[in-house]
Design a protein that fits this description.
Layout lengths: L2 H40 L4 H11 L9 H23 L1 H23 L4 H13 L1
Helix pairs in contact: 3-4
Length: about 130
């Protein structure tokens, strides 16, 4: 095989190898945690302690999504793409950057329209009940 055929084949294989490698890495990383929980659970007599242990290993977020933070990040990614297109890569990247920036602006505005933290929700309910 010559270099002209190896490069496209390697490019296609990269698109397959990277996701498979990440999947295997995530599986092996979580496997150690699962094994530790099983070993500890074998020696725990009290079921409430087991529930407490499981909440320690729970990786899910307890906080709601902060749309304002995500919106600002998306807005600046869009601005970066826009300027990349403006200075180097042309109209396609300008359009993509403008689209991403507008999506970020919408997400940012949604963060203010829809309160998401417990304090903001309580304040909104209290203001509504006062009316």
């Amino acid at each position: 095989m010559n270099v002209e055929t190896i490069i496209p084949v390697m490019g296609m294989l990269t698109g397959i190898i990277i996701p498979v490698a990440v999947f295997i890495w995530q599986y092996l990383d979580a496997k150690g945690k699962r094994d530790a929980v099983v070993e500890i659970a074998k020696h725990i007599e009290d079921p409430s302690k087991l529930d407490e242990l499981l909440t320690l290993f729970d990786e899910r977020k307890k906080q709601p999504i902060d749309y304002r933070r995500g919106g600002v990040i998306t807005l600046f990614v869009g601005a970066g793409l826009f300027f990349l297109g403006l200075f180097f890569l042309g109209n396609v990247f300008k359009g993509i950057g403008a689209l991403v920036g507008l999506i970020g602006t919408g997400v940012f505005i949604a963060g203010y329209l829809y309160p998401n933290t417990e304090k903001e929700l309580n304040d909104a309910v209290n203001q509504f009940e006062k009316k």
